[in-house]
Amino acid sequence: MLAHRYIRTDFTSQEDFEQNYCLNIPPRFNFAYDIVDEYARISPDKRAMIWTNVAGEEKQFTFADMSRKSNQVANYFRSLGLKKGDPVMLVLKRRYEYWFCALALMKLGCVIIPATAQLVKKDVVYRCEAASIRAIVAVHLEEVCCHMEEARPECSTLQHLITLGDRPGWENLIAGMNQQPETFDPPAELPENDDMLMIYFTSGTTGMPKMAAHSYTYPLAQIATAAYWHNVDDDSLHIAVADTGWAKAGWGKIYGQWICGACLFVYDFDRFVAADMLRMLEKYQVTSFCAPPTVYRFMIKEDMAAYDLSHLKWANTAGEPLNPEVYAQFKKFTGVSLHEGFGQSETTPLLMTSKWMEPRMGSTGRPSPAYDIDLVDADGNPVEDGVEGEIVVRLDKGHPAGLFLGYYRNEEKTAEAFAGGMYHTGDMAWRDVDGYYFFIGRSDDVIKSSGYRIGPFEVESALMEHPAVLECAITAVPHPERGQVVKATIVLARGYAPSPELVKELQNHVKKATAPYKYPRIVEFVDELPKTSSGKIQRVKIRHQDSQ
Hints:
By secondary structure, the chain is of the alpha/beta class.
């Protein structure tokens, strides 16, 4: 474990952690050189990754392997003319080549732009023009490559299309890297700590996606994620389900985990199947698991008792609030408590249920000591315990590592985000007397009905307690008298069918489980809910469909 070089690893309690957390940031930190190459030097045979896919293929990589492979890719990228500051988009899903490429780009000082494979032509054009992308490295799949090819004529800065095999008009990454030496001479000018390491394109629920720019210190900020939230160490085999195109991959699939010495388990799939994931956890004896609540919702509907998950010691969730019913069922089957966290593409985890904390139902945890976090009202004033407010990061003590630099090439949005000497998340929560935060929702998700403010999460949690409900989303529908009313969009569990009787039963269930005025006056049954590539439910799409 190299984490001790950058952070204390001997905290004994939550109080000790919160009072004495301090990150040691060296000059010109570079994750590829200072972590991966350093492990290759001092522990070359240390396991870095176990990779497998739905076809049963398997590969294992040591840190020496990762160092050599990334050197070859860096030499190859250099031969194409890529250099410090050049933005390169990686559309590599869960292929192990993502890690080769990401490390190579760090070694060159290029800007990494992770992206989902679900992008279509207009998305590719927008990203290329917005960020002046020089090269795209994509999986060797027709449905992915064709969108890049259609976009290429409209991408003024794009010079290279690179894929993982032979394809007309594309360069072959595998063939190119295999022709390169396994040693790499670092460029004369390496990035500074404040230089851009990567850009995450935000989900774009309102308008076009923004570009959240992170610096070279971002990986260091993820040590707290891995050590104190994921609770990993040198003996851990950790999986985060996220696709590499999502910011959650930065939380759970590379930086903090490797600094803490954990081995990454990567299961490469295109469509999530809960039974397959459970088989992988059993077969490879995974010790630490992290996934959005959506994944857990599907897993608990399987016969989990049929799988030996005795090696699983820790589990985390983030991306959206965790329903208590999901928490209870997962613990019943595994004996493992789900430790929730909250953050954004613009941050590392801001709130976390750390390794010392007992999860509290409905709570996302306490503020990470890596940030100075508060709850404020619409005027920026702190609110008292029990009062709804916006989650903010105060900046009067400096700009913490892990908080994005700003929205690249968008001064107006950056100024809005950092108004009043604080970073505004736009997410609403309340805090209890013990300092635990309880998530309410995005400010634009909160429903205002007949003078009441209703957070969608509480109603969703009530519905999830009913056995007929597999998934649900709560949104607002305009109403001439009440302003808005609550709508439930529901995916039914196996064995249940839509009916007026079931609608009434679900409505009555909510009335008993929470305040009666919060029950859904409108109920719609659907086959699936709209989601982002990271698994988050897109309530904004439901609202948009209802407004047509």
